[in-house]
Write a structure and sequence with these properties.
With 108 residues, the protein is mostly helical. It has 6 helices and no strands. Helix 1 packs across helix 6, helix 2 packs antiparallel against helix 3 (44-59) and helix 3 packs across helix 4 (61-72). It is globular and about 35 Å long.
Length: 108
């Protein structure tokens, strides 16, 4: 797996872990999507897929399991969906920096 794929995969694992610990963080991607869609961003179809996953995760335990499974999935379809990720802001800059350092040391 090339570096950018490893870094992306690790980032989504960290996002999943953080959301699992604090489901209230799901308000961040919902707010991001509202703002982006209001501004006419491309990829609205994918963002709506995320919205449905997140709303289900907020409603039921099985919905949360499905969302976490998608965040853990490294398959082609999941990677495509993640290319429209609304999770900016879930990880702090310090957490992102730690992931970059960890991924660099793992890769070398």
């Amino acid at each position: 797996m090339e570096f950018s794929n490893v870094a992306s995969y690790q980032r989504f694992l960290a996002i999943a872990a953080k959301i699992e610990r604090d489901p209230a963080l799901l308000e961040i991607p919902l707010a991001n999507m509202d703002r982006w869609i209001a501004n006419g961003i491309d990829g609205q179809h994918r963002l709506e897929q995320w919205r449905q996953l997140i709303l289900a995760a907020q409603s039921t335990a099985s919905g949360m399991e499905i969302l976490l499974a998608v965040l853990h999935d490294d398959g082609e379809e999941a990677r495509h969906l993640k290319s429209y990720s609304p999770f900016a802001g879930v990880l702090t800059s310090k957490e992102r920096q730690a992931l970059i350092l960890e991924t660099c040391s793992f890769h070398h």
